[in-house]
Amino acid sequence: MQSHLGSLDWITSYGLMLMLALVTCWWLARRNAKKNGIEPSHIDLVLPLALLTGFLFVALRPDPRIQLIPLIITCLLVVFIYSRVARLEFGRLTDAFALPTIAAIAIQRIGCFLAGCCWGDPVSSDAFQWLGVAFPAGGFAHEEHVALGLIAPGAAASLPVHATQLYEAAFLLALLAAFPRRVAWWLAPGTLTLLAITGYALVRFGIEFLRADHVEFAGPFSIVQLVCVALVLVAGAMGRMNTNAWR
How many domains does the chain divide into? Predict the structure, then answer.
């Protein structure tokens, strides 16, 4: 765990990766906007508006466990309002952000790993011990394991846990690599967005089983997983409604 950059206490690894993720999303979205026939300056306007609104909404929520998905949904609402005001096609505008957002989430998950947040359950199987990561004393995982009585307060590190942050980043990067770039621009407006939402929801659904903050809400499933299922169903329904899925 490397929560700060060297001796610079005012620069956190999480904050640095967050900035890198946002800049990457902005840069890639501007490139995509040109391909979609949208003036890139619209990206310069709507991205800060969406992020500021999304972060404000997340900060005001009483439950901090579900942050990323509400952020994405809030940003989508802001983009929708902007598209109406600017008289842009909503699907084309969101498609410009679809894959860049997946890339940004993957980058930010590396920041989560460096900060020690969003960690996983202890690795219980001997066959998968090589996947375990022990976070040092003072980290979130270490504090949780001490509180649960799993390790002594003076232990130098936590138990080896699943690096769910890196798992998610790896799956998202694989999703980006597997997506056919040439096909993307032949899809009807909005279809790429629906595919990106579905892909992320499926990845997050699986990762949730290994996360330490997984709290069962309905059977073995958490609230986050139920939201992921809802996103997949809504995206699938909207995709079927689009009878002109291919140009």
Answer: 1
Average pLDDT, the chain: 87
User: Which tokens sit at 228?
Assistant: 């992921």
160 C-beta neighbours (distance < 10 Å), count: 19
Q: Is residue 235 a part of any domain in this protein?
A: no
Domain membership of residue 102 (yes or no) is yes
For the chain, the 3-state helix, strand and coil shares in percent, each to the nearest 5, are 65, 10, 30
Query: Mind listing the pLDDT tens digit for each residue in 93-106?
Result: 999 999 999 999 99
Q: pTM to 2 decimals? A: 0.89
CB atoms < 10 A from the CB of 219, how many? 6
Instruction: Give the torsion through C-alpha atoms of 132, 137, 141, 142, to 10 deg.
Output: 100
The parent domain of residue 19 ranges over 4-120+163-179
Measured between alpha carbons, how far is 39 from 107 in angstroms, rounded to an integer?
A: 26
The predicted structure's pLDDT at residue 245: 41
